Amino acid sequence: MGLNHPPHPGRSIRQDCLEAFGLTVTDGAKILGITRHMLSRILNGQAGISPEMAVRLEKAFGGTAQSWLALQQAYDLAQVERRKIKVRPASSFLEEARV
């Protein structure tokens, strides 16, 4: 995917951790010390990577906690930017208040 549409980090976990090691979701959950349901939610993009999960991923599969969190942050930011939030610049508000 492009820079404006980074994939959910669950995709990286599925490909780079589970599939790369030939693991099932159940295996991955046991390795990470979480429930299968929780890992499944992350893999399916229904839940994000928390700082605690990032540390678990670092210890279990490598990479750094920061890199796992960066994937989540990039995904979250892209989702917000796609909503095109309308915010008025403070400078235009201040100019109108002075008139």
Q: Strand tally, please? A: 0
Note poorly predicted spans: none
CATH H-tier superfamily: lambda repressor-like DNA-binding domains
Content of β-strand: under 5%
The SSE string, one letter per element, is HHHHHH
CATH topology: 434 Repressor (Amino-terminal Domain)
**Overall helicity:** 55-70%
Rounded average pLDDT: 93
Question: What is the first-to-last residue Cα distance?
Answer: 47 Å
From the alpha-carbon coordinates, what is the Rg to the nearest angstrom?
Answer: 18 Å
Shape: elongated
In the CATH hierarchy, the architecture is Orthogonal Bundle
User: Major sheet, described briefly?
Assistant: none
Tally of individual helices:
6
Oligomer: single chain
For this structure, what is the CATH class? Mainly Alpha
Number of domains: 1
Task: Give a written overview of the molecule.
The protein has helices at 9-21, 25-32, 36-43, 51-61, 65-82, 90-98. With 99 residues, it is mainly alpha-helical. It has one domain: 434 Repressor (Amino-terminal Domain), CATH 1.10.260.40. It is elongated. The relative contact order is 0.13.
